[in-house]
Amino acid sequence: MELASVEAPETGRTNLIGLSRAALAPHLLAAGVPEHQVKMRTQQIWHWMYFRGVQDFDAMSNISKDLRHLLSTHFSLARPEITSEQISTDGTRKWLMRFADGKEAETVFIPEDERGTLCVSSQVGCTLNCKFCHTGTQMLVRNLTPAEIVAQMMVARDALDEWLHCDRHLTNVVMMGMGEPLYNFDNVKAALQIVMDNEGLSLSRRRITLSTAGVVPMMARCGEEIGTNLAVSLHAVRDEVRDEIVPLNRKYPIAELLAACRAYPGASNARRITFEYVMLKGVNDSLADARELVRLIAGIPAKINLIPFNPWPGAPYECSEWTQIEAFAEIVNRAGYASPVRTPRGRDIMAACGQLKSESLRARKNPAPAGAA
Ligand code: SAH
Question: Which among 108, 184, 281, 353 is the best mutation to test ligand 1's pocket, defined by most ligand atoms within 8 Å of the CB?
Fold first, then answer.
């Protein structure tokens, strides 16, 4: 069998993280694992990688020493490098991860009482340029590979020391970090399939939420092929306003987006679509907007997440007044929708919603002038 992607040991070892089981097998074969063993070895390696989290083939104690040596000459289990870790006063942790090509993305862990949510990035940067989002101001953009997406969860389990615990704190994943997951569909799908594999990282699809700004043509496939919970960044109820703050709306306007939500496979009262709505003072927060929101989503099994706008330096908006957020929530609640107001977390370390951006990159490129605060 020809396997062009297997790199010779002298040019670098192939990293096994992010390969599906089906993709792992031919790599093992090409490295010299006897054909009749490939299935069993795939199973064993999978278990060590994703269930136990080992980073070294030598720890794979049910594999013979010779074979471990063979594996380590051909393959690696290296994680991205953590180039900075910040811990908020509220316990939120933000990691900046540097990938093999030097590009960086952020991952955030948000501990709560009974659970903890990992906010995972799908791209370095983002092409959408939502006006209120800090990531949109970053220039560099590329898709993350399945390996780079899965590795964010593995690094979090390493850092939280949670591989062998049954009372884990990392219980949920949201694809709400940097990037638009539905613009990187294949890689996000491949990564989430590994995250959901029940002999590995083993997170149930009900504990994973994919958030999109509304890439309408990919939404049905998202429901059918990935099957996690869906969150939609709605943020405005009139096209004039949404065109401005979520420019993707010019391509896929509100009516098309809501039609895709109505048709979303698997949505039901037990599995509601979350509509995210960032509260921007004087822009989208009027009580008429709240009433229009309720009217627009009628008939969709939904809940509404009201997100106080998290400011960042130079942001063109302010967060709505608290009384306004409450009055808005009241209208939505009275219409029968749960509308929790999301408490901002990790604000002191710029880890709150929409604040993710590899600051260090800019800092390195444009060092502050001497004497600047
Ligand atoms: N591209 C995807 C996922 C990334 S953004 C999406 O648009 O859904 C994750 C969520 O954070 C989105 O709802 C986004 O609109 C919101 N967000 C972005 N910037 C924000 C900010 N400054 N304050 C509050 N929420 C923000």
Answer: 353
Contacts of 82 (CB under 8 A, 6+ apart): 95, 96, 97, 98, 155, 159
What are 304-358's pLDDT values in tens digits?
999 999 988 889 999 999 999 999 999 999 999 988 888 878 887 877 776 776 6
> Does residue 6 sit in helix, strand or coil?
coil
Give the 3-state secondary structure of residue 295: helix
Q: How far is the CA of 320 from the centre of ligand 1 (A)?
A: 16
Q: In degrees to the nearest 10, what's the CA dihedral of 156, 182, 198, 34?
A: -90
**Residue 27 and residue 20 in contact, taking contact as beta carbons nearer than 8 Å:** no
Residue nearest to atom 1 of ligand 1 (CA): 180
What pLDDT sits at residue 369? 40
Using CA atoms in the order 118, 226, 308, 106, what is the torsion angle rounded to 10 degrees?
40
The ligand 1 atom nearest the CA atom of 310: 23
317: which 2 tokens? 């908006």
| Ligand 1 binding pocket includes 121 (Cβ within 6 Å) | no
**What's the pLDDT tens digit per position in 56-88?**
999 999 999 999 999 999 999 999 999 999 999
Question: Is a pLDDT exceeding 80 seen at residue 251?
Answer: yes
Among 86-90, 152-156, 190-194, the range scoring the smallest mean pLDDT is 86-90
Kindly list the structural domains of the chain, giving each domain's residue range(s) and its CATH number in brackets, ordered by start: 14-76 (1.10.150.530), 81-349 (3.20.20.70)
d(CA 209, CA 217): 18
> Distance between CA atoms of 24 and 289, rounded to whole angstroms?
51
The rounded distance, in Å, linking the Cα atoms of 110 and 342 is 12
Helix extents (H) in 145-233: 146-160, 185-196, 216-221
Spot the catalytic one: 126, 180, 353, 359: 353
What's this model's pTM, rounded to 2 decimal places? 0.92
Q: Whose CA is nearest to atom 24 of ligand 1?
A: 309
Euclidean distance between CA atoms 15 and 275, whole angstroms: 37
